[in-house]
Design brief:
Length: 267
Amino acid sequence: MTVQTWQAFVIALWVALVESRVLFGGATTTLRFTPMMTGMVAGLVLGNLSKAMMIVAAIQLIYMGVFSPGGQMPSEPAIAAAVAVPVALLGGLKPAAAVAVAVPVGLLGAYLYQFRLFLNTFVVHLTDKYAEKLNDRGLTLSIIWIPVLVGFALFLPFMFVTLKFGVPVISAFVKSNSGTLIFHILTVIGGGLASIGIALTVYVIGKKNYIPFFLLAYFMTVMFTKLNITMVTYAIIGSILAFIYVLGKNEAAKLAAKNNNSSDDEF
């Protein structure tokens, strides 16, 4: 199995749209920071959506604790998913091993994004000239459209060449070396990276008041493993618990405010 020309072009076009931030305004940033959507697009294009989502779900875990100060990511999730998912599908990789492929690809993608920012520095001088002349059309051109075109010119050919010619080579290497020690190591490392992502997320949002909910969710998954409960069911249960928690806090706040008003009236 190889990546056909139209498949490589469609996936590359999606990545170019995401990285150039032209889709749905601010929503593009979320698409860039979340590999799930890129993995879904790759799965649809390659005709194996279910397995693609299992693979990209493992990749998503390592980005749960990744932050983007100033919009710069240490690793580009969209590029990582766009390459790792086709490699895993063509090479028959397990999701954990696909994570180990996604990490170096994402790091290379981060350098490419930095190069895009470097190219845009030349546009800043043009923006200054338009600002001095109060040229609103020129500002729209230099602030929005030129950076978008720069993003397309950079990411579209790069991703197309990578997907069309690079992915088959990597997947062939994977097939010829599957079951060896090196891929066992990749699988172990991939599982560890996912754990780090979860741990970072817990560290960031792990307020003492919320720790019982985290422990409850963990032990529920352990106890109910044999029941084959889906993530949708867990999401519904979590939503109900969150609603009860918020409702209880609101009622407590109203009661406290009522008591404070009663105390003020007495004085």
